[in-house]
Design a protein that fits this description.
CATH superfamily of the domain at 5-157 and 195-223 and 258-273: NAD(P)-binding Rossmann-like Domain
Low-confidence stretches: none
Order of helices and strands: EHEHEHHEHEEHEEEHEEHEHH
Oligomer: single chain
Strand content: 15-25%
Amino acid sequence: MKNQKILITGSNGFIGKHLVRVLEQENEIFTLSPIRSQRIDVTDFESLKSLPIKEIDIVFHLAAHTDIEDSLRDPRRTVFNNCVSTLNILELCRLFEMKLIYMSSYLYGKPQYLPTDESHPLSPTNPYALSKMIAETMCNYYIDNYNIKCITLRPFNVYGIGQPEKKYSVVGIIKQIGKGEVEIENEMEKRDYIYVSDVVDALIKAGHCVERISDVFNIGTGNSYTLPELVTLLLKISGKNPKLTIGRKFSSYIPETRADIGKAEKELDWHPKIDIFTGMKKLWDYYGNKS
């Protein structure tokens, strides 16, 4: 994408920061993060209209309350903010003919089949996922009834430099390795891990294609790994030998996620470039000496 005027909501988030760094090299970027800033509230339509809307060509809407545990404690806050902010962005796109790239989430619940394609039934397992499903429905309504140009991406497990450092995230495991002891739970869960630069690439490819396509696309790798497999890979990369403890074992509601990405590969001409070894090495090189 070159020489466009782009609004990025959620620009200070994990994925948003990476997207801004790539797009600002050849475009004029307007950023808005978090959902409420000192000047603009994405859930307040009148506040949003103070932006230079008429100048903007395309919106990347990433702003959202993404903390799943927080969504379980306060579902109204999560659903309200994520749905109303998306509705407001859709209204701006309708009124000012802006194109939209919407960042959704994994919405398939316990998969009925693997790999999982975009036609799989949706089954949100928490209020955060519920808010994303509702927002997708609104996007589809605006596509069908107001002819806005919109592509929705459903990323699987995104990881990379700058991701939230939770205990069982990849970064959290690296921190544990540095301390000489690693504890993991439910070691049989398998997840499809997609590196953040590949997600950014998918967003940009969607931006190129949105004029001719309005649809939903999975963003993953088509491969899945357990936490013990990731730990083994990180130990191979790092040369470390910490104590490994398997903590709480339980029957996972979602035992495995694995994306069918054939649709994105064909229609967006997008392909993941970072394999799991390369991605883990990037993270170890960045965080390993700091842990």
